[in-house]
Amino acid sequence: MSTEPTRVQLRLTGDPRMISAVSGAVEHFAQRAELDEATQKQLMSAAEQACQETISQLETPETPIDVSIEHYPDRLEILLAHASDQAPAIGLDSFFSTGDDAAPAHGLLLLALVDRVLYDNEGGQSRLRLVKYLKPAKKSLQ
């Protein structure tokens, strides 16, 4: 496999019906990375949950969401970015709720589905990155 990442970039609106486009792209990349079916479904579910939560954080439904799905030799990354004036802690709270049993802990659910969840808010951009590490390919003995 090439060391150059392969990538797809999507620009979505806040319309929840657009989540299926992200899910389909994630499924394609997960299959290409030869993940088993259960892991593919987990990664798709994580992407869908991240999209839903991102849409709920948009200042207006017309605010674009930039989605990038990248396949590196050792991992898959899903990045969701959108314009946001929120302080980093405010956006992070939406993903990692604490103390309130009535509020779902989206971040904790995401962590159960992927290996790493990274969040930052800088320069007016809110970014959520989901990372799924790939098992190294077995080398054939010759």
Task: Map the helices and strands.
Blueprint: E1 6-12, H1 19-32, H2 37-57, E2 65-71, E3 75-83, H3 88-95, H4 106-113, E4 116-122, E5 125-133
Antiparallel strand pairs: 1-2, 2-3, 3-5, 4-5
Helix pairs in contact: 1-2, 2-4
Spans of at least 5 consecutive residues whose pLDDT stays below 50 are none
Helical content (DSSP H or I, runs of 4+): 25-40%
Number of strands: 5
End-to-end separation: 19 Å
Largest sheet: 5 strands, antiparallel
Shape: globular
SSE topology string = EHHEEHHEE
Helix/strand-derived class?
alpha+beta
Strands of the biggest beta sheet: in what spatial order? 1-2-3-5-4
The overall pLDDT, averaged over residues, is 84
DSSP strand content: 25-35%
DSSP summary: helix tally = 4
Radius of gyration: 16 Å
